[in-house]
Specification:
By secondary structure, the chain is of the alpha/beta class. The chain contains 17 helices and 15 strands. Strands 6, 7, 8, 9, 10, 13, 14 and 15 form an eight-stranded mixed β-sheet that branches. Helix 6 runs parallel beside helix 8. The chain is globular and about 60 Å long.
Length: about 450
């Protein structure tokens, strides 16, 4: 497996320090190691690359500002190709390097499922911002998983709320039909149980239409849609599958304004090849959308790209997937910063200490403003029992050239989600023989 080191530090001295970090003779690493598991190649590369660039650039921004209270960040990537086996191999190769991994962001629901059993033994947190296992919101059972910024159950719930509002109330969904066109993988299957639960409650039918990886062949799927004429289509795709779905919708005459994508199906790479033909297509924007004028975007352009250190093209800074990578990196950095408040400001944090920081996050509006994310997202706070925090999302719509927000903020219905999370987490705990943590254990 070939490793691609995006950056170590801006100076030769820092690079030398990175070499010394690996030496067992050094008692404590001087830099916080953030390993990366992105995918820049294969059918999902066009979507995975801007996320990875945003992630790397934000970490560079933190280093340009002096690090996390003086502790610089060392970042190294291992290409997974969105393949679960390769993702696990990358994890095993990187987890012990440079004094030990601070945390991992798997960037794949399949890889997340595989690493969920490994993380507790290795004592390394997994941040799965907006993806992964929806029931991992329960931190008493999933002690090392952090689905910060929302889950697929949140996304599906918000989409149901939105179309209910368009119809004049959730009760008006009775008798309607929603077709779920989904990537036939753990990722694509995540929203099914939520949609079926909502369907039973509100009286709408859910038509399940799986699409085989990588999603380039969908003619049979859209033939079924043309025949069944669903009232709405929810698209749970990734990579080339999304643009193919939109092209098939154009070919079959299915109205794009009746189509709603999950946030991995509603970014610039999904619509740019369809252009005007995708006009009216909608997507759920969980905590963020495209933000070319945000404070953090301007800082990255100034302090990173302005110094010739940008990871990718300057033009993508502020785009949807780029912002998702930057937001994900910020959550990891703030987990370390929060941990330092307890274990020592300006000190290197272990994975276990970082876990405490992540489950005691308190990113209020003032803090978000300071970080440059004030207009990008809503406040996030976590606890031992809640590893996700508030579940806020908006809808954005493609106007033929760019994404624009087209709704107010929605919050997922906890009366629906909480019982589902509790039940699924309890089932997982029974299967894995896990004893849920107590509040006292959380603070130890």
């Amino acid at each position: 497996m070939k490793f691609r080191s995006v950056f170590i530090s801006a100076t030769i001295a820092a690079a030398t320090s990175a070499v010394l970090i690996a030496s067992p003779a050094l008692a404590q690493p001087k830099e916080q190691f953030f390993p990366g598991l992105p995918y820049r190649t294969g059918p999902y590369g066009p979507n995975g690359t801007p996320w990875a660039n945003g992630y790397a650039d934000y970490l560079k921004l933190i280093n340009a500002k002096g690090g996390i209270n003086g502790v610089k960040i060392l970042y190294e990537e291992c290409e997974t190709g969105y393949d679960t086996a390769r993702g696990v191999e990358c994890y095993e190769r990187l987890k012990g390097k440079h004094g030990g991994a601070t945390l991992f962001q798997p960037l794949s629901t399949g890889i997340t499922f595989a690493l969920t059993d490994k993380a507790p033994n290795d004592k390394i947190p997994l941040i799965t911002a907006g993806y992964g296992r929806s029931e991992s919101q329960d931190g008493t059972v999933f002690g090392w998983n952090f689905p910060l910024a929302g889950t697929y159950w949140v996304a599906a719930d918000v989409l149901v709320q939105h179309i209910g509002k368009k119809e004049g109330g959730l009760d008006k969904l009775k008798g309607k039909k929603i077709a779920l066109v989904y990537h036939d993988s753990p990722y694509g299957k995540e929203p099914i149980v939520l949609l079926q639960e909502r369907g039973k409650f509100h009286g709408f039918d859910v038509q399940l239409l799986p699409v085989t990886h990588p999603g380039v062949e969908q003619k049979a799927t859209w033939l079924q849609i043309r025949q069944s004429r669903p009232d709405y289509v929810f698209l749970w795709g990734w990579g080339v599958m999304n643009s193919v779905a939109l092209k098939e919708a154009v070919a079959t005459g299915y109205p794009r304004e009746k189509m709603y994508g999950v946030w991995w199906s509603s970014a610039e790479p999904d619509v740019k090849d369809v252009g005007e033909g995708a006009k009216g297509y909608n997507g759920v924007a969980m905590q963020h959308g495209a933000h070319p004028n945000a404070k953090v975007t301007k800082e990255i352009l100034d302090l990173v790209h302005g110094k010739g250190q940008g990871t990718g093209p300057k033009e993508e800074v502020g785009s949807v997937l780029y912002m998702r990578g930057a937001l994900s990196a910020m959550l990891g950095v703030e987990g370390v910063r929060r941990a330092q408040e307890r274990y020592g400001k300006g000190k290197w944090m272990t994975g276990e200490q970082t876990r405490w920081g992540l489950e005691n996050l308190s990113l209020d509006q003032k803090k978000l403003e300071t970080l440059g994310f004030g207009e990008v997202m809503r406040p996030v706070s976590t606890s031992c029992s809640d590893h996700m925090g508030p579940a806020w999302a908006r809808i954005h719509t493609w106007d033929g050239a760019k994404w624009n927000f087209s709704s107010d903020w929605y919050q997922a219905d906890e009366a629906i989600l909480k019982p589902m999370v509790k039940s699924a987490a309890a089932k997982y705990a029974a299967e894995k023989k896990i004893t849920p943590r107590t509040p006292a254990q959380c603070q130890s």
